[in-house]
């Protein structure tokens, strides 16, 4: 057993002074086969600790059903870090932000329209307690007080940026203590007064999150906490990207300068991020400051390790600075991992979504009004809404009131337009005499992960209207079909005769195969495709979109098989040339 404690203005581990130099990497953004590689590269860079969030929505995807295997095996990740001689800082709060879907909160919380989030409302606390009752006993043997590597745990996350409910923070702290979490507990917030006033607790270590001006930030912290160690729990050395935005890059000269100043002040630091990884599947989050902005699939973050785990110029520059303040380990220095260009993948088969509904596993649900995803018991993916609209109506405007987030609109199977949460909310079409079947495919592009708009239900949230905008009527009598795309094995494909085949502007699944002699990392490029989701051997790689800035999807080698591999692309708008390319370099901007 070990004791990690505060001693005056610093930390001690088993009675010896220690400064934490930590790097963030999230087990849920890295395929497990690569956990050890990434952790070894962290240690070789001179870091003595690794920090990770714990994503509630990954571990309790449906209420009362818990998952701790595969990419969700947080216990294995922590043990592995300890075996490699690294300390662990764990941030198991109900809310994590992290540019992760819904900030780590499970979507099923939103099925109750009365649920209040991130406060001491009893129904929310009841759900948190049930989660902690499952999670905390798993963590207890991994604490330093039990012989494990976890030396510190966070209470909530940047709570002062959201609220000021001290009863809520006390509940979380007391629940951790009652669950046997007898290690150092801390909070982390920005350096504004209101953030520190709302997010800190008496008797609990307060830490800061910032990317620059460390002297100013720590001076503010000293006003609230004059006698405890200085810690930057999130040193933002890069940034994340939104669809339609630029790829963010922060040069290492600036990062090195700020780090040198942090360490010269005697502070401890946690790099956010050391290695970003990937928002596989539908787990990307979104922001909404002035308008809704979904985060891209890559979480490269312009960090010290690239999305595929390779050391960058920033890695070597930071290692040199750390060497001025701490002894560097005598570890082999990491080299880039091998990459392979597997070449063109011709998509030889196609399955129309409209002909595949019954093969995707979710039955249609009738309702008076279109239902949200959460009311349908759905977490991620798409929803197909269908109803009848009367005719004739010339120049009929079909208005989706508060659609979340992006909808393709069809009349009798014919595409008539797109409605987007951040842009136009309607499409115009002529309805023939006798009426038409109205179909709407809505994509959840990621729940908001930060700020006051956190309660972000998905689908058609208020209703659909038809007619002239000033004289329209709500449409009633719907069928709703959840499309999680969790299992595509039942699809019935038809051959594509030519790679120049004309494909209609309708959603469809395209299937092709390629041969891999070795299982090496590669990058999927979909030039000539518009928007959708890609799967390799049944694994959801995440979203692509011609809007950029991300131009390739990372395909980790462990997802491949030696021999024949399957690539499936769910394309929303069709492609004239159904060919993908697997290349050996990424394109992020």
TrEMBL record:
Residues 11-324 form the Glycoside hydrolase 35 catalytic domain. Residues 370-474 form the Beta-galactosidase 1-like first all-beta domain. GO terms for biological process: carbohydrate metabolic process. InterPro entries: B-gal_1-like, BetaGal1-like_ABD1, BetaGal_gal-bd, Galactose-bd-like_sf, GH, Gly_Hdrlase_35_cat, Glyco_hydro_35_CS, Glycoside_Hdrlase_35. PROSITE patterns: GLYCOSYL_HYDROL_F35. It comes from Cohnella xylanilytica. The active site is at residues 158, 234. Residues 507-565 form the Beta-galactosidase galactose-binding domain. Gene3D superfamilies: Galactose-binding domain-like, Glycosidases. GO terms for molecular function: beta-galactosidase activity. This is Beta-galactosidase. It comes from the Bacteria. Keywords: Glycosidase, Hydrolase. Belongs to the glycosyl hydrolase 35 family. It holds the Pfam family Glyco_hydro_35.
């Amino acid at each position: 057993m070990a004791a990690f404690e505060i001693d005056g203005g610093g930390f001690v581990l088993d009675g010896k002074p220690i400064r934490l130099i930590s790097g963030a990497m999230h087990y849920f953004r890295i395929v497990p086969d690569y956990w050890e590689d990434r952790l070894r590269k962290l240690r070789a860079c001179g870091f003595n600790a690794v920090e990770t969030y714990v994503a509630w929505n990954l571990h309790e995807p449906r209420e009362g059903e818990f998952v701790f295997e595969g990419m969700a095996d947080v216990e294995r990740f922590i043990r592995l870090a300890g075996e490699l001689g690294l300390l662990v800082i764990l941030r198991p709060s109900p809310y994590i932000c992290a540019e992760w879907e819904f900030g780590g909160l499970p979507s099923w919380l939103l099925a109750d329209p009365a649920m209040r989030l991130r406060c001491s409302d009893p129904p929310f606390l009841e759900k948190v307690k049930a989660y902690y009752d499952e999670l905390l006993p798993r963590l207890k043997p991994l604490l330093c007080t039990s012989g494990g590597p976890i030396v510190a745990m966070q209470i909530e996350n940047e709570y002062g940026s959201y609220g000021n409910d001290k009863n809520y923070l006390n509940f979380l702290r007391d629940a951790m203590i009652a669950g046997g979490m007898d290690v150092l507990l801390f909070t982390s917030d920005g350096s504004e007064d209101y953030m520190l006033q709302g997010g800190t607790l008496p008797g609990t270590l307060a830490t800061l999150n910032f990317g620059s001006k460390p002297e100013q930030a720590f001076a503010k912290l000293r006003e609230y906490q004059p006698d405890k160690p200085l810690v930057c729990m999130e040193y933002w050395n890069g940034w994340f990207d939104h669809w339609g935005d630029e790829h963010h890059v922060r040069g290492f000269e600036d990062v090195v300068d700020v780090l040198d100043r942090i360490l010269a002040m005697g502070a401890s630091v946690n790099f956010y991020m050391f290695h970003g990884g990937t928002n596989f599947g539908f787990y990307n989050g979104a922001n909404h400051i002035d308008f809704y902005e979904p985060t891209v699939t890559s979480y490269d973050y312009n960090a010290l390790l690239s999305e595929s785990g390779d050391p960058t110029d920033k890695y070597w520059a930071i290692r040199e600075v750390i060497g001025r303040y701490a002894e560097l380990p005598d570890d082999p220095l990491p080299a880039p991992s091998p990459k392979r260009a597997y070449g063109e993948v011709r998509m030889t088969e196609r399955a129309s979504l409209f002909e595949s509904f019954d093969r995707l596993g979710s039955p249609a649900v009738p309702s008076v009004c279109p239902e949200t995803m959460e009311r349908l018991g759905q977490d991620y993916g798409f929803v197909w809404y269908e109803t009848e609209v009367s005719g004739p109506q010339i120049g009929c405007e079909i208005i989706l009131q508060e659609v979340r987030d992006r909808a393709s609109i069809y009349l009798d199977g014919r595409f008539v337009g797109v409605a987007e949460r951040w842009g136009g909310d309607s499409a115009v079409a002529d309805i023939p005499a006798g009426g038409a079947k109205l179909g709407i495919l809505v994509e959840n592009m990621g729940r908001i992960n930060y700020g006051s708009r956190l309660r972000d239900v998905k689908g058609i949230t208020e209703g659909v209207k038809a007619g002239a905008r000033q004289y329209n009527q709500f449409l009633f009598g719907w069928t709703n079909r959840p499309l999680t795309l969790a299992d595509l094995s039942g699809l019935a494909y038809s051959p594509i005769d030519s790679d120049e085949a004309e494909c209609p502007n309708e959603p469809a699944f395209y299937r092709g195969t390629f041969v891999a002699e070795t299982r090496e990392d590669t990058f999927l490029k979909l030039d000539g495709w518009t928007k959708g989701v890609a799967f390799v051997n049944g694994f959801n790689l995440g979203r692509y979109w011609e809007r950029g800035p991300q131009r390739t999807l990372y395909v980790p080698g462990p997802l491949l098989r030696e021999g024949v591999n399957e690539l499936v692309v769910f394309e929303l708008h069709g492609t004239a040339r159904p060919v993908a390319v697997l290349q050996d370099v990424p394109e992020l901007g």
